[in-house]
Amino acid sequence: xxxxxxxxxxxxxxxxxxxxxxxxxxxxxxxxxxxxxxxxxxxxxxxxxxxxxxxxxxxxxxxxxxxxxxxxxxxxxxxxxxxxxxxxxxxxxxxxxxxxxxxxxxxxxxxxxxxxxxxxxx
Length: 122
Hints:
Elements: E1 9-17, E2 22-29, H1 37-84, H2 88-102, H3 106-117
Antiparallel strand pairs: 1-2
């Protein structure tokens, strides 16, 4: 097996782990025992910066998704308020009940309501 790759040294740093995924930053070298204590320290610094950047990207994606969900739910609430002459609380309760009865996420119920109401040519 050693003749199939030039890699002779590997060092890996765990970036994060949760129930569904895990990430690592790995470095490879062609020389045996290429990673000394100094290289490990630098690798830890790179791993820390990578983990921070990755978490910022994930948080930004979550924020964007939450904002889009809030907007679509707001549109659906407005439609229900206009159609059934109810206030925002009752419109939200209706969405919540539809979500529970259909076993769909609230945002998905709202999305179906909003996009079902739009003409095809929009």
